Amino acid sequence: MAEINTTGLEELSSAFMRHEQAADKAVEDMLQAEADEYVKALKHAAAGYNIRKTGGFIESIKAGKIKDEGTAKSIEIVPEGRADHGADYGGGYSNMSNKRKGKAQKGNVRYATIGYIFEYGTSSLAARPWHTQGLLQGEQPAYSKAQEIWEKYVSSTIS
Q: Residue 151: beta bridge partners?
């Protein structure tokens, strides 16, 4: 019978595990840094389109927590929360029989809904593509930050 002997296989296995954990941490740091850059760019784009009634919408744009989806990780950047006023994003408001689609008659409207209305517009409100513009503005700075973090990780694992 053939016989195989190995020495140091456990050490090699644990080294691979440490490397995987360090890479996982680097990816999370990259995602968080990219999200911060995109949030900054989205807020700047929204302010550039004068989407400011109370300032709540711009302040509501936030990055969520990092989610594990199997082997992938993701992070959502959305306007969170609700406005402390009724839906009033242009086109007038009448509490009579003039009900407009998407308008809350009572209660507060979600900031995500306000953002959607501003992005795509309505029949009486021109589109203000703050989201598209913000994503375009944030792409290069986010990529640069992520690349910087990854290069630090690679240089620390090589040396």
A: none
Which residue range is the domain that position 145 belongs to?
14-158
The model carries a pTM of 0.77
Residue 53 resides in a domain: yes
Q: Are 51 and 128 spatial neighbours (Cβ–Cβ below 8 Å)?
A: yes
pLDDT tens digits, residue range 92-131?
A: 444 444 445 555 455 688 899 989 999 999 988 899 999 9
Q: Say if 9 falls within a structural domain.
A: no
> One-letter amino acid identity for 34?
E
DSSP 38-98: HHHHHHHHHHHTT--SSSHHHHTEEE---EEETTEEE--EEE-SB-SS---SSS---SSS-
Domain count, the chain: 1
Domain membership of residue 5 (yes or no) is no
Which of the 8 DSSP states describes residue 100?
Answer: P
